[in-house]
Amino acid sequence: EMPEMQKIYQQYQDKGIEVLGVDVAEDPAKVQQFIKDNGYSWHFVLDHDGSVSRRYFVQGLPTHLFIGRDGVIQDMMTSMLDTPRMQSELGRLLTP
Fold first, then answer.
1. I need a surface site. Which of 17, 33, 65, 95 has the fewest CB within 10 A?
2. CA distance 41 to 68
3. Rounded Cα distance, 26 and 48, in Å
4. β-bridge partners, 80
5. What is the pLDDT of residues 61-74, one digit of tens each?
6. Measured in Å, how far apart are the chain's first and last C-alpha atoms?
7. Rounded CA separation 26/17 (Å)
């Protein structure tokens, strides 16, 4: 789903959408190489010890959080997302 996320990010970034990838407990050099090799342009952070995952009650991977402009979590899904579902969730966030 990450190639689709890249396309969605490019489509929506000028509307104020941000994507943050959180990588859990993997080697930083391998993560950076993966990002570079695949041309992902959104931001990534490393959750070295799983504390970020615990804070957001992540039970499995991938987990997607959709957060509104007000900082409130609007939806959380633990599953792969296809393009129509991503667009639907983003459309809801962008609707005033």
1. 95
2. 21
3. 7
4. none
5. 999 999 998 999 99
6. 27
7. 26
